[in-house]
Specification:
alpha/beta, binds NADP nicotinamide-adenine-dinucleotide phosphate
């Protein structure tokens, strides 16, 4: 029996991690802002799977929120064995159409929170000689795509670098790079998705199954779907200028309407 802490655990990919890990018998610490949804998720997972579920209401765009999760991760009385840094969001619009405050909030949640929570978790994991961290990035990390893509590129580089630094300690880190997943993400950002072809959409539960399999194989980077593996192969070969043009045009369609 181990304990997993998941940020953004009340919806989408984070909720899928919570369902799967509870089903596998892991105790959970669920983190998000909405207390009502956290309590409802905790009750459901406890009743269905018989695991212990704590809730921790925290806004990871605020200093208090990040430090309260850091405190939970460094509490040696109830160690966390798996950290899933998943909380995140999108901003609708191209550069200059998004306020500087919103750009900075994104960097706080996607980068500062991930840096600080990873750091808080891996110290104890290293001492215990085991543990894992999954940092949810995106395939947007590999294409020029504004602050969102840049923040996810940081997540990939950071995670793979730390994974290398911790080789041989028993602590595994993996950056997870999904493509489009059916969650609340696009609706929350006010993004239209009508022009995204059906074949590009992934199922959150299947994504999590593939991600956990990659983590157990010791991968530091997971692009968990054959369709996106092929696409990312093509992206590596394509000239950056061409890619920038394509993603910018795509952004115009599925960003501002
Ligand atoms: N959906 C996709 O197509 C897709 C593709 C690639 C990568 N991703 C990445 O996957 C991750 C999860 O996205 P999702 O699609 O599952 O989104 P989602 O369905 O909108 O869920 C987001 C979760 O994060 C929490 N959250 C948001 N802002 C937060 C904050 N400031 N502090 C704490 N919790 C916060 C939300 O709960 P509260 O609102 O209650 O806080 C919710 O539980 C993100 O990092 C996203 O960038 C998504």
């Amino acid at each position: 029996m181990t304990t997993a802490l998941i940020t953004g655990a009340t919806a989408g990919i984070g909720a899928a991690f919570a369902r799967r890990l509870a089903k596998d018998g892991h105790d959970l610490v669920l983190v998000a802002r909405d207390t009502g949804r956290l309590q409802a998720a905790a009750t459901e997972l406890h009743d269905r799977h018989g695991v212990e579920v704590e809730v921790l209401a925290a806004d990871l765009s605020e200093e208090d929120g990040i430090s309260s999760v850091e405190r939970r991760l460094t509490d040696g009385r109830t160690p966390v064995d798996l950290l899933v840094n998943n909380a995140g969001f999108g901003n609708k619009g191209r550069f200059l159409e998004v306020s500087m405050a919103d750009e900075l909030t994104m960097l706080k949640v996607h980068c500062e929170a991930v840096l600080r929570l990873t750091s808080a978790a891996v110290g104890g994991m290293k001492e215990r000689g085991r543990g894992g961290v999954v940092n949810v990035a995106s395939v947007a990390a590999f294409v020029p795509r504004g602050t969102y893509g840049a923040s996810k590129a940081w997540v990939v580089q950071f995670t793979q670098g730390v994974a290398r630094d911790l080789t041989g300690t028993g602590v595994r880190l993996m950056a997870l790079c999904p493509g489009f997943v059916r969650t609340e993400f696009h609706e929350r950002a006010g993004m239209g998705t009508d022009n995204i072809p059906g074949w590009m959409w992934l199922d959150a539960d299947k994504l999590v199954t593939a991600a956990l399999a990659d983590l157990s194989r010791g991968k530091s980077l997971s692009v968990p779907d054959p369709r996106y593996k092929v696409l990312m192969g093509a992206v590596k070969l394509a000239p950056r200028g061409l890619l920038g043009g394509v993603t910018s045009r795509t952004g115009r369609k599925y960003g501002p309407q």
